C-alpha cells in the first residue's frame, strides 16, 4: 500500500472516531427548597416593560426551547444579569438550563465557565449536588476526560435510583451508557441505554430521548450493525423535525453522512485487490455521503453548529483524498483550522492538520506537510492522546522517507514503534488496573462490612452492658417493694384463680355436655329423617308409582324438617363460636345468581319479579361461600314468604373504597317501625310471624346478623308499613381482617368434598357361569345363590340401626351382595372373614365407632386395600376431613339420596377396576417376552403361541370365556378341547383359570398392587371368589404370599 492510500485510511479512522463526539444533554431540573436570591435586581415583569429586546427573546425561548437555543442562551444571560430570582432554586435551575444549552450548541468552554463557579457557589447546598454531579460527568464525556467519571457519580447512585427520581435515573443511565461505549463495554451500554430510553419516553423528556438514541446509533456503528444505526438515525430525524429541533436534526444528518461513508470504507476493505470504484453499492454509499456532507455543512453553518460543520469539512477532506483532489483537501483543512481556533476545538484542529499534512505530502510539498504534522503533534501531546501520536509518528516517517531524509524517517519509525508499544502496554495496564480495582473494591467492601458489623456488635454490647447495670440498680431498689406487694397479693390471687378454675371447669363441662347433646340429637334426627326420606324417594321413583299428594307432602315436610335442624345447629355453633369458616375469593354476581336459582320456581308461582342493578363481573370479595348462601337465602326466603304476589324484589350493589354494600329490597307489606330494633334478635317473631298462616321460627334473621358480623360486616333493615322492606349488608373488602389460617385457595376449597364417580355401568355376568350351572341337588337353591354371590361384588354395611341397614340393602340389591354388621367390632371380624369389595359404615356406633373401624382397617395388612365409605349424620367439615384423613375413600351425610349412594358405590368399584387393568397392562408389558420364551422353549407350535397370546391379552376381561377363545382361534369347541388336552393336559376353561392364578401369584410376589387390585386385574369380579380359587390352587391364601414377599428384603441385580 502506498503512502497516499495509507493516509487515506487514517483519515477514515479519524472520521469514524469523530462520530462518537455527539452532544450530550442531561435530564431536566430537580425540585428542591432554596432561599431567596438578590433583592437589588428588578422583577422580571418590570424588565419586560423596559427592555423590548428581552421581551422578544423571552417569548422566543419559551415558545421554542429546542429550535432557538442561541436566543434561549441570550435570554438566560440577560435574565441572569437583570432578573430578581425569588429563590436560589430558581436561580440554580436557570444556570443548569444555560449549561445544557451550551452543550447543545457545542460551546463547551462556556459551559465549563458557568459550571465551575456554580459548583463553588452551591458547595454547601447538599440538595443540589446530585444534579451538579450529572452535569459535571456530562462535561467529562464532551472533553474526553473520563478517568474520574464513575467516581463523580458514585456518591449519588442511590439518589438516582430512588423511587420518585425517575428523571435523575433516566439521565444517569444515559451517561453511564455513553461512558461504557467509550470503554468498549457494549453489552452493558446497550442495557443501560435501552432502560434509560424507556424512562425518558415515559417521562416525555424528548431532548433526552434524542440523545440516548444518538448513543445507540454510535453503539450500532461500533458493532458494525450499520442498518440498525441508519434506521434508528431516521427516527431521530423525525423526532427532531417534529419538535423543530434543528440542532438535533443536523447532528442526526451528520451521523447519517458518516455512516454511509463508513459503509463504503468497510465495503472497500472487504474487497482487496478489486476495482472498488466501479462497484455500484460502493458508489451509491459514496454518493449519499457526498450529498449529506453538503446538506450538513449548510445546515450547521446556518444554525452555528460549528463542531458539526467541522465534521462535514473533515469528511470533505476524505472525499477529496478519494478523488485525488489534494488541493481541495488543503482548502478544507484551512477552513477547519480557522473555525477550530476561533471556538477552541483543539482536537478537531489536530485531525484537520493531520489530513492537510497527508495532502501536502501527496503534492510533494514536504516542508508544509511537516509543519501541519507539527501542529497536530502539539495538540495530541497536550491531550496525551497516545493512539493519535502513533499515527502522527507514522506520517512523519513516511513524509521524511518520501522527501529523501532517511535518517529522520528511521528515527520517526522508531518513535512510531515505541509509541505503538506504549499504547498497547497502556491498554493492557488499564485492563489489568480495572481488574485490580474491582478486586480491591470487593476486598474493601468486605473489610468495611466486617468492621461495620464488628463496630455495631461492640456498640450493642456496650449498650447492653449499660442497660444491664441500670436495670440491675432499678431491680435492686424495687425488689423489696415488689416482694412485699407480691406477698400480700399472692393469697388473694390464689383464691381468685381457684374460683376461676372451678368456674371454667363448670363452663367446660356444660359446653361439652351441650355439644354431646346436640351431636347425639342431630344423629338421631338425621337417622330418623333418613329412614323417612329414603323410602319415600324410593317409592316415588318406582315405575308404577301414581301421583299421591300425601306422599309428596310427607317428603316435602321431611326435607323442611332437615332444613330447620340445620339452622338450629348452625345457630348453636355460632353462639358457641365453633362454626367453621373457610374464607375464599368469591365473585358476587355468580354467588347471588346461584342463590336466586333456588327460588326461581317459588318466585314464579307467586308472580314475584327480580331486578338486579350494579352487579359487575369484576366484583370479588373474601367470604365463606356457604355462609353467604345462608345469608342471602334467608333474606330472599323472608321476602318470598311475606310478598303476597305481583311484587318486585330488587338487588343492587354499591362498591366503595373499603366496603361492598348489597341491598335487597321488596315492595311487600313492610314491617312496623316499632319492631325494627328487635328484628335481628334471636327467636324474636313479629306480628306477621305470629300469624298462624305465616309461621316462623325467629332464628333466620338472627343467623343472618351473626354470620355477617362473624365476617366483620354489618347488616341493617329499614321499612315502612305498606311500602316494603330494604335490607343492607355491608361486606369488608380485602382479606386483612381474617386470620390467615381461615383463608383457603379458591381452587382447593372443595378438596374434602367427596366425588361421585361417573362410571356406574353394571358389569355383565361371565358367560361361562351362564352356560355351565352347577348340578342340581338337594342344596341346589343354596348352591346357586352362593355361586351368584360369588360373582357379585360384596358390600359390607356396618350400622347399629337395623332399619338403616335394611334401607341400604334394598338400594344396593340385587346388583351387589350385601352383608350386614350392627357395630364396628362385628364389622371388623366380618371383613376379615369375607374380605368384601367395599365397606359402608356409620360413625356413631357402640363398641367401635366408624372412625376407629376405618383406622383398624387401614392398619390391617389383609384389609388395608378395602374401599370405605363413611355414612353419618355428622356433617361438619372438621368431621369429614377427620374421616378422610384416617383413610376413608368417601363421606356421605344423612339423609342421603338413594341414587347418589348407589352411584358412589359403583364409582369406587369401577375406579378400582380401571386401576387394576392398568396395573396388569404395565406388568404384562415387562413380562410378556419372558413368559413366551419360558412357556414355549423347544416348541415351534404357532397355534400354542397364538393361544397364549390370546389368553394374556384378555386376562383382565371377566367376560372372556371358552366360547370367545375358540372363536378367536378359528376352532370349534371340541377341537380346542382336544388341542388343550393334548398340549396342556387340561380343558380350555381350566387353562384360563390356571393362567389367571399364575399371573396373580407373580404380581403378588413382585408386590404389584394390593390383593383386590390384583384380583380385578386378572379378571375376577369378587375378591372372595379370587381368594377361594387361589387357596385351592396354591394351598395357601393370597394374603400369606403378599405378606411373605413384602417382608423379604429386595435384592437389586
From TrEMBL:
Residue ranges of every copy of the HTH araC/xylS-type domain listed in the record: 945-1044
Transmembrane segments: 467-487
One MF annotation (Gene Ontology) recorded for this entry: phosphorelay sensor kinase activity
Keywords per UniProt: Kinase, Membrane, Phosphoprotein, Signal, Transcription, Transcription regulation, Transferase, Transmembrane, Transmembrane helix
Top-level division of the source organism's lineage: Bacteria
Reactions the enzyme catalyzes: ATP + protein L-histidine = ADP + protein N-phospho-L-histidine
Signal peptide (UniProt feature, chain positions): 1-27
Span of domain Response regulatory: 794-909
EC number: 2.7.13.3
Pfam families for this protein: HATPase_c, HisKA, HTH_18, Response_reg
Domain Histidine kinase: 520-735
Example of a GO cellular component annotation carried by this entry: plasma membrane
Modified sites of kind 4-aspartylphosphate: 842
Protein name: histidine kinase
Organism from which the protein derives: Aliikangiella marina
Amino acid at each position: 500500500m502506498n503512502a497516499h492510500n495509507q493516509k487515506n485510511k487514517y483519515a477514515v479512522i479519524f472520521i469514524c472516531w469523530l462520530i462518537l463526539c455527539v452532544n450530550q444533554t442531561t435530564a431536566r431540573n430537580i425540585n428542591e427548597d432554596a432561599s431567596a436570591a438578590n433583592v437589588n435586581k428588578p422583577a422580571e415583569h418590570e424588565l419586560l416593560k423596559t427592555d423590548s429586546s428581552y421581551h422578544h427573546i423571552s417569548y422566543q425561548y419559551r415558545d421554542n426551547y429546542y429550535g432557538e437555543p442561541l436566543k434561549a442562551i441570550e435570554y438566560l444571560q440577560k435574565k441572569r444579569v437583570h432578573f430578581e430570582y425569588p429563590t436560589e432554586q430558581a436561580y440554580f435551575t436557570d444556570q443548569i438550563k444555560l449549561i445544557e444549552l451550551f452543550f447543545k450548541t457545542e460551546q463547551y468552554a462556556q459551559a465549563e465557565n458557568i459550571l465551575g463557579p456554580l459548583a463553588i457557589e452551591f458547595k454547601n447546598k447538599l440538595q443540589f449536588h446530585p444534579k451538579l454531579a450529572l452535569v459535571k460527568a456530562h462535561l467529562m464525556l464532551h472533553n474526553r476526560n473520563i478517568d474520574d467519571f464513575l467516581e463523580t457519580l458514585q456518591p449519588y447512585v442511590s439518589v438516582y435510583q430512588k423511587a420518585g427520581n425517575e428523571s435523575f435515573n433516566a439521565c444517569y443511565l444515559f451517561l453511564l451508557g455513553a461512558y461504557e461505549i467509550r470503554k468498549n463495554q457494549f453489552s452493558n451500554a446497550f442495557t443501560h441505554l435501552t432502560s434509560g430510553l424507556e424512562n425518558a419516553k415515559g417521562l416525555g423528556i424528548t431532548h433526552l430521548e434524542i440523545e440516548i438514541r444518538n448513543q445507540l446509533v454510535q453503539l450500532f456503528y461500533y458493532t458494525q450493525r450499520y442498518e440498525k444505526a441508519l434506521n434508528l438515525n431516521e427516527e431521530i430525524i423525525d423526532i427532531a423535525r417534529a419538535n423543530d429541533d434543528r440542532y438535533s436534526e443536523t447532528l442526526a444528518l451528520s451521523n447519517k453522512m458518516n455512516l454511509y461513508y463508513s459503509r463504503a470504507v468497510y465495503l472497500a476493505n472487504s474487497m482487496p485487490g478489486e476495482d472498488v470504484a466501479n462497484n455500484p453499492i460502493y458508489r451509491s454509499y459514496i454518493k449519499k455521503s457526498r450529498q449529506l456532507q453538503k446538506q450538513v455543512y449548510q445546515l450547521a453553518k446556518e444554525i452555528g453548529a460549528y463542531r458539526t460543520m467541522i465534521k462535514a469539512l473533515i469528511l470533505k477532506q476524505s472525499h477529496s483524498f478519494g478523488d485525488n483532489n489534494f488541493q481541495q483537501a488543503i482548502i478544507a483543512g484551512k477552513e477547519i483550522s480557522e473555525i477550530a481556533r476561533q471556538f477552541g476545538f483543539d482536537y478537531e484542529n489536530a485531525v484537520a492538520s493531520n489530513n492537510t499534512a497527508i495532502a501536502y505530502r501527496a503534492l510533494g510539498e514536504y516542508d508544509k506537510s511537516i509543519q501541519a504534522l507539527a501542529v497536530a503533534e502539539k495538540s495530541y501531546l497536550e491531550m496525551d492522546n497516545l493512539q493519535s501520536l502513533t499515527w502522527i509518528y507514522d506520517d512523519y516517517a513516511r513524509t521524511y522517507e518520501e522527501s529523501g531524509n532517511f535518517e529522520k524517517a528511521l528515527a520517526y519509525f522508531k518513535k512510531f514503534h515505541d509509541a505503538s508499544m506504549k499504547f498497547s502496554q497502556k491498554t493492557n495496564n488499564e485492563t489489568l488496573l480495572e481488574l485490580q480495582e474491582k478486586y480491591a473494591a470487593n476486598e474493601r467492601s468486605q473489610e468495611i462490612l466486617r468492621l461495620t458489623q464488628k463496630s455495631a456488635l461492640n456498640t450493642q454490647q456496650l449498650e447492653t452492658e449499660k442497660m444491664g447495670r441500670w436495670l440491675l440498680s432499678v431491680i435492686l431498689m424495687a425488689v423489696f417493694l415488689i416482694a412485699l406487694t407480691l406477698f400480700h397479693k399472692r393469697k388473694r390471687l390464689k383464691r381468685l384463680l381457684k374460683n376461676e378454675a372451678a368456674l371454667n371447669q363448670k363452663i367446660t363441662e356444660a359446653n361439652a355436655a351441650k355439644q354431646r347433646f346436640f351431636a347425639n340429637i342431630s344423629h338421631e334426627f338425621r337417622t330418623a329423617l333418613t329412614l323417612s326420606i329414603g323410602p319415600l324417594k324410593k317409592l316415588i321413583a318406582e315405575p308404577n308409582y301414581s301421583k299421591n299428594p300425601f306422599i309428596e307432602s310427607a317428603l316435602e315436610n321431611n326435607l323442611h324438617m332437615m332444613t330447620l335442624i340445620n339452622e338450629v345447629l348452625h345457630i348453636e355453633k355460632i353462639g358457641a363460636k365453633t362454626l367453621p369458616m373457610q374464607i375464599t375469593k368469591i365473585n358476587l354476581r355468580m354467588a347471588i345468581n346461584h342463590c336466586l336459582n333456588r327460588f326461581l320456581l317459588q318466585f314464579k308461582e307467586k308472580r314475584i319479579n327480580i331486578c338486579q342493578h350494579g352487579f359487575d363481573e369484576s366484583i370479588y370479595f373474601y367470604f365463606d361461600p356457604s355462609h353467604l348462601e345462608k345469608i342471602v337465602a334467608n333474606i330472599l326466603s323472608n321476602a318470598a314468604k311475606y310478598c303476597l304476589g305481583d311484587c318486585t324484589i330488587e338487588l343492587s350493589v354499591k362498591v366503595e373504597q373499603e366496603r361492598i354494600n348489597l341491598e335487597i329490597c321488596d315492595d311487600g307489606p313492610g314491617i312496623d317501625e316499632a319492631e325494627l330494633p328487635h328484628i335481628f334478635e334471636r327467636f324474636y317473631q313479629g306480628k306477621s310471624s305470629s300469624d298462624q298462616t305465616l309461621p316462623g321460627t325467629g332464628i333466620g334473621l338472627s343467623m343472618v346478623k351473626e354470620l355477617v358480623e362473624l365476617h366483620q360486616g354489618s347488616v341493617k333493615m329499614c321499612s315502612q308499613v305498606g311500602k316494603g322492606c330494604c335490607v343492607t349488608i355491608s361486606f369488608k373488602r380485602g382479606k386483612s381482617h381474617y386470620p390467615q389460617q381461615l383463608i383457603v385457595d379458591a381452587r382447593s376449597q372443595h378438596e374434602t368434598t367427596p366425588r361421585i364417580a361417573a362410571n356406574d355401568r353394571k358389569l355383565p355376568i361371565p358367560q361361562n357361569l351362564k352356560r355351565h350351572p352347577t348340578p342340581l341337588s338337594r342344596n341346589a337353591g343354596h348352591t346357586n345363590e352362593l355361586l351368584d354371590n360369588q360373582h357379585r361384588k360384596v358390600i359390607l354395611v356396618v350400622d347399629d340401626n337395623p332399619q338403616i341397614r335394611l334401607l341400604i340393602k334394598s338400594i344396593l340389591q340385587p346388583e351387589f351382595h350385601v352383608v350386614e354388621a350392627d357395630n364396628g367390632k362385628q364389622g371388623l371380624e366380618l371383613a376379615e372373614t369375607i374380605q368384601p369389595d367395599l365397606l359402608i359404615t356409620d360413625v356413631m356406633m357402640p363398641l367401635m365407632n366408624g372412625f376407629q373401624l376405618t383406622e383398624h382397617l387401614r392398619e390391617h395388612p389383609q384389609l388395608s386395600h378395602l374401599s370405605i365409605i363413611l355414612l353419618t349424620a355428622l356433617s361438619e367439615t372438621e368431621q369429614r376431613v377427620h374421616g378422610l384423613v384416617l383413610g376413608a375413600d368417601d363421606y356421605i351425610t344423612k339423609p342421603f339420596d338413594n341414587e347418589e349412594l348407589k352411584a358412589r358405590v359403583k364409582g369406587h368399584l369401577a375406579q378400582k377396576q380401571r386401576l387394576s387393568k392398568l396395573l396388569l397392562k404395565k406388568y404384562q408389558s415387562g413380562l410378556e417376552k419372558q413368559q413366551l420364551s419360558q412357556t414355549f422353549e423347544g416348541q415351534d407350535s404357532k397355534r400354542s403361541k397364538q393361544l397364549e397370546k390370546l389368553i394374556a391379552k384378555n386376562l383382565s376381561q371377566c367376560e372372556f370365556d371358552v366360547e370367545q377363545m375358540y372363536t378367536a382361534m378359528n376352532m370349534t369347541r371340541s377341537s380346542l378341547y382336544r388341542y388343550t388336552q393334548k398340549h396342556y393336559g387340561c380343558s380350555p376353561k381350566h387353562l384360563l383359570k390356571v393362567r389367571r392364578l399364575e399371573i396373580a401369584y407373580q404380581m403378588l410376589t413382585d408386590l404389584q398392587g394390593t390383593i383386590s387390585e390384583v384380583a380385578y386385574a386378572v379378571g375376577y369380579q369378587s375378591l372372595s371368589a379370587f381368594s377361594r380359587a387361589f387357596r385351592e390352587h396354591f394351598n395357601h391364601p393370597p394374603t400369606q404370599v403378599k405378606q411373605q414377599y413384602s417382608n423379604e428384603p429386595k435384592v437389586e441385580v
